[in-house]
Amino acid sequence: MVTNAIPLQSDGSEYGAQSPIVEKWTPSLLSISFLTVAADFVLLLCGTMVGGSIGHILQRSHTFALSQQQLFIGALIYSGIVLCLLRVDNAYPRACSLLHVKETETALRVSIKAIVISLVLCIVARYPVPRMAVFGAWIVGTLFLTVGRAWVQETTRKHLSVIFPKRRSLIYGTKRTARRFFTVALQSPMLGIDPVGFLGGASEANDAIFSNDYSQNDSRPIFHERLSVDMLRRMGIQDMFICDTNMSEHRLNQMRVIAREANCSLSQVDDQEILANRTPTSVWKMDGLFVATIAPNDSGRFYRVIKRLMDIVCSAVLIALSLPVWALLAIAIRLESNGPVFFRQKRVGQNHKLFEILKFRSMKMDAPKYARSPDEQADIRITRVGRFLRKTSFDEMPQLINVLRGDMSLVGPRPEMPFITEEYGPWEASRLTVPQGITGLWQLSADRRYPIHESIEYDLYYIQNRTLLMDIAILLHTLVYAAKGI
Fold it and tell me: Whole-angstrom Cα distance, residue 368 to residue 272?
């Protein structure tokens, strides 16, 4: 029997990388990789040319003229540098990251490195270039790259995934690890995995599992029957992925026998969080061994200082720009019902510190102050103005004051009420090791319709991978998807 070990990568980008499931179709993978690199090059070249031209036009001093030929050569060199850095940074994995935020972060980080290298080369070569042209080329080129890459990835997944041969796969387990693996398989057609469904226990109440993404358009059923050779043959299962790390060795041996008789490959998916006793961890490889370090992700003093500075500047600017909107919303709230404009409530911040969160009041005055948030817009506790506030997320705007005070950050896990955090175990409590935020991965996902504590995998992913550029990437995704009304 062939058993495909699922390597435990820290970025989750190479599920099944050593599996013959994928390697059979290497020519197709190479061609798609080439097209992806070519698309990035075209996006970079066009964006750099457009941005450089705009910047050159806006340059106040006309003492140095930049011809189109010089601009093209510069754009060509810069695009080549970015592509080389993307390859070095492993920016073309077979599997996509959670909500595609990691890809945006990588593009931002690489663009900063590339512009620094380009400027150093210009200084060494004593080649003068208009500053506005360089700045414009960098900004627009980065914008083209980040937005264009997301479009290319989505197009590949929707329209080109049919060219990848798929193997019918069954996911054993229904918990967070299974759902995460299911999402990676759906979003990464190059893996060649076609999830047929999940195999759950008799006590499993749900009938289907949805993917971790922005809209949750994809789901697969949960099968409640007992695993057997007949079942695998009847469903045409070629690969089975075990996403239950609590499985006993005896049960695992039984499944190996069943898979062998059904001529089905068996793979184990290891979850970093479970291996590290349900705390954020870094996982690295040492001479073929995977080492899980049980320690929170220490982001460093520089990150904390810059993050706080960004919070202060951005929240102050946003408050100043949105004051007219605040005034209109305050008038609308007071006209509909008597009571304060702002809703104040105790929330739990970083390191279990209590603070008073601010919101525009969206519920009636007789609504309980400390209770589960309404699950539906039709909830009788919500006012008419409140429905508009919740639909547009304008009720969250006063939290910019919390950010300015230092109670919260722009990006981070959502702060919960004390009676909820009192029920936290060690795993859930790790959410409180970082500043709580207005927006984050959970807020971008379709799981935002459910309670926060039921979708903790988003916050744990952020805590393990957070950087300044990831924060910026999340803010950019928030702006884009808020504009789309998701």
Answer: 39
* Helix (H/G/I), strand (E/B), else coil: 126: coil
Residue 285's beta-bridge partner residues? 290
Give how far Cα 335 sits from Cα of 189, 277, 369, 395, Å.
53, 52, 21, 16
Given this model, what pLDDT does residue 424 score?
84
Backbone angles phi, psi at 391, to 5 degrees: -65, -40
Instruction: Give residue 266's domain range.
Output: 3-9+165-270
Location of structure tokens 């019902």: 337
Q: How does pLDDT run across 304-342, given as a tens digit for each residue?
A: 999 999 999 999 999 999 999 999 999 999 988 888 999
Residues 363 and 470 in one domain: yes
Q: Are residues 316 and 253 in the same domain?
A: no
Report the candidate in 321, 320, 315, 365 with the shortest Cα–Cα distance to residue 340.
365
β-sheet bridge partners, residue 195: 169
Domain at 211, CATH number: 3.40.50.720
Strands 193-199 and 167-172: parallel
Give the tokens for residue 355. Answer: 């603070």
> Which string of DSSP letters, residue by residue, matches 215-270?
S---EEEEE-SPP-HHHHHHHT--EEEE--TT--HHHHHHHHHHHHHTT-EEEE--
250-264 as b/e, with b when 16 or more CB fall inside 10 Å?
eeeeebeebbeebeb
85-120 pLDDT, tens digit per residue, is 999 988 888 788 888 888 899 999 999 999 999 999
* Token pair of 349 as six digits: 């911040």
Q: Three-state DSSP class for 63?
A: coil
Mean pLDDT, rounded, of the chain: 82
Judge residue 9's burial from the number of C-beta atoms within 10 Å of its C-beta, 0-12 exposed, 13-18 middle, 19 or more buried: middle
